[in-house]
Amino acid sequence: MSETMIALVTGANKGIGYEIAAGLGSLGYRVGVGARDATRRETAVGKLRAGGVDAFGVPLDVTDDQSVTDAAELIERLAGRLDALVNNAGISGQMDPGWVQDPTALDLKVLRTVVDTNVMGVVRVTNAMLPLLRRSPSPRIVNVSSSVGSLALQADPDIEIGPIMAAYAPSKSFLNALTVQYARQFAGTSILINAACPGLVATDFTGFQGPRTPEQGATTAIRLATLPDGGPTGSFFEDDGVIPW
């Protein structure tokens, strides 16, 4: 088995996902750049390679069963296993002015679309990649979440947690809950799975509003993807430590 560590990052053609791929690549990982758009995907791969990263493109639409199956088969052919999976792909869903999703007027189509990507997409990809992850001596899974998914923070009137987002925020709460269930299932194995909050990062996802750079936003996910054996699992982290559920 090759000593080179293999990683897959979903939604890696730009923003935080790209920087996670770049960061893992700088640590010596061979990185699969998962993305739907072929042009953006190959542009990202070229940029990563120009920076010295051993990167390869992985056509991947996390909402499409066949696309996910094909991605797993591609990684098996190219690498034979997977050491780190970072489920970064995510969407906010349609927003009203002020970046608000009013629960009393929420279009259920928006909710379904957000959950399909942010929650079901993670399940699709994780389960498809599990046979490859199980071939690694130290498999790591990171689900990129958000502090807006913290019920404790959302429910505290003394904490400013941002606008009401009735589709996006609950999708991250759902993702956090799934992370815990996976951790329970993986108990006693070498697989470590955690959720990571990148903070408020200035990317196109946020309309380039936020105090953190994509590089800073990638830090926690990179750390969790490279945890040593015996590290934490089933937890929710930001740069400063654990976030309450």
Structural features, described:
The chain has 245 residues and is α/β, with parallel strands linked by helices. The chain has helices spanning 15-26, 38-50, 65-78, 108-133, 151-155, 168-185, 214-225; strands at residues 6-10, 30-35, 54-59, 84-87, 140-144, 192-196, 236-238, 241-242. Strands 3-2-1-4-5-6-7-8 form an eight-stranded mixed beta sheet, sandwiched between helices. Helix 1 crosses helix 7, helix 3 (65-78) packs parallel to helix 4 (108-133) and helix 4 runs parallel beside helix 6 (168-185).
Q: What is the N-to-C order of secondary-structure elements (H for helix, E for strand)?
A: EHEHEHEHEHHEHEE
Report the sheet-strand fraction.
5-15%
Main β sheet profile: 8 strands, mixed
Through-space gap between termini: 38 Å
Q: What order do the strands of the largest sheet run in, or round the barrel if closed?
A: 3-2-1-4-5-6-7-8
Number of strands: 8
Shape: globular
| Helix segment tally | 7
Q: Which regions have little confidence, pLDDT < 50, spanning 5+ residues?
A: none
Radius of gyration: 17 Å
Helix percent band: 40-55%
Query: What is the average per-residue confidence, as pLDDT, rounded to a whole number?
Result: 94
